[in-house]
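Batch 3, record 17
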Amino acid sequence: MNSADELISRHVDGANTAAETEELGTLVASDPHTARALVRAARLEVMLPRRLPRQPSRAPLRWTLAAAAAALVAGSVLAARMLTTPDAPVTGVADQEENWLPVEKIARLPIREINPAARAQWEFWHDAREEAHVPLPELKLSWERKDEVLRVNSEPVEQRADWGPKRREARIVEMQPDGLIDLGDGDKVKLRSFAIKVPDFAAYHPQANPIPLKPLIFTGLSGEMLTGDAASYIRSEGSTRFLGNSSRLWVNLERLSGKEITILGMDIFQPETRMLLSGTDGTSSLAGDELRAGREVLLTSRAPVMVALELGVPKSAPIVLPFKEGAAGSEGFSEVRLAAIQPGAWRIIAGGIQGHPKQFMTAAFRQGEDKEAPERHCLVGLNISPGLSAKITARTASGVFSFADYLQIYRNQQFMLQFASFDVPASSIQSIEVQPLARRRVFIRYTPPVDPWNGISQETDDVLDLRIPLAAPDVWPCTIIDRLTGSAEATLESMVSGRSISITSELRNATIREILAHYARSAQGGRLEMEPRLRKFRFVKD
Amino acid sequence: MTSSADFLVHFHRCEPDLRACIGAMVTDPHAREDVFQELSAELWRSFDKFDPTRSFGAWARGIAMRKVLEARRKFARTPVAFPEETLAVILQAFEDEPQDSGEEEALEECLQTLPEKSRSILAWRYTDRLPCEAIARRLGTGVKAVHQSLCRLRQSLAACITKRLAARGDAPHSFSSHELRR
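Prediction for the assembled complex:
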């Protein structure tokens, strides 16, 4: 038996069970004193938030983030990066829904608002790690606000040696009441924005290709800052892994779309460094410009933004090279490098096999070998950051061939390779243009279909329409990951059966045929439709 | 004074009590907000029907109860705690227990007298809006213990408010907790 006060107290907390609520209701109805006590408690409940002083609470922040980090468990990754510039107001970077947590939101974010996507993402990458046998780096963050000082303590990060630095240096930044942060070396700078981020490792696959990703650093207060922090990251990882023979740095700034970013201290890059800031809807903010320290770039596109940095590519490099089958590689396959040459279009400029693991190449060649018509397949492999799809066009002397109805995407953990196949003699192709398409937030991986022309992937605004012939071979392992939320918990819903199922748990490695068989037993054909926002797939019978 | 200004004067004065009224009847905080929003809109729409010779608070609370019941009918999941008869009793209790204008000030003073740990618990609960589970984790204790702590704190604050109002001689009613009264 609870006392009336306990029942009332729990009632205002919304914690009473049904039986307790009933008990309280009986008491209220039968005893005016209890009814009045409830009234007073309800009033107190309204008054308290108004009258409690806003204390400089360090604990909530620390607890919140500690709990967030704990929830991510070992193996997860949080990375803190600062987007800073002198004399700028403290502003947010992006919505917390996108895993970026603006500083002014952190203090009052309940744990549940921080975590869902991060947790989901961790789960996914945990799986990926198991597949790849690659440990993920760890970064633990503890934050606390001490009086009016924001203290950020980024603890050391363990990383595998071949991923870059063995250990990332811990650093502490304090934001003082006037909004300045002390870099610890005597410099004080104004914090503009600050975010913690759960990186998307989708584009970060050191074994596959030196495409680095996140955490990305368009940060920098000064050259010193960049040298000490961001630059070291880029340099240390880049020199050994990312910027070596790849000379390419891809970063995904989709979460910053529509935001102003400041690029400072770009002296760490080669003078010939080129950069493209392009909305994946085809718009560009900056294309082909040489980066300069202090350059401010306003990402005008509200669409997801991809940023490509061509590092160390001489300006005098040919923009368009003749594309010849087998010209660049002994195995007859050319890596394609993308460069920003005009807004909204990336053109293949060079060939050369660099950094691709054998398994990808093997897959590529298998794809390219058409014994019946060896001249009719020109194979193009593109390294494209995850989330980006492209319309591929081949120019020949006799015309332009678009390649939109067949898109094959490899997503090997963090690395996506797209292959295009043109039904024209490869030797006739003069150039290939790649037009990035927006809106792709879903990875699909499957092995090369035997008959590529029967596999159709077509993108629309928000629906990935996977046209899958039931006659397709049984060898299409399919992994579908919804990047929109970073969750692998996409569900596949059958219009036939009406059932939902977790792809992660049940269909992660299922073949498409198995999926179709599972969800459309009697169907003779159809397609899977996906609504990314709903994270739903559905099978539509043709 | 225009009708709008009139309404705002009444509404702002009664808003906390209306929230309390809804809070007493509805358990879920989100549902409370929804009902309050509905109520606000309804009050604004119906303000021309309000008889200025009567109590705005009583009129608004009556509509509040109607809105609570409407919400329950409309959204089956709206966690209205009690049956209609009990809600009527609660409504009457609000009439019988008019709010003292000095209560909030007294509360502020009482909060100053609490130990730091108690203030922290209240701040987590009301300022940071942490659920009791999170508070329990912070305290390294169980959820039940948190509920008990909150209960004791509320009792303590209620007693303190009553005492301060009485000391000022302007307490038309006791703000003491139910148990204390008994």
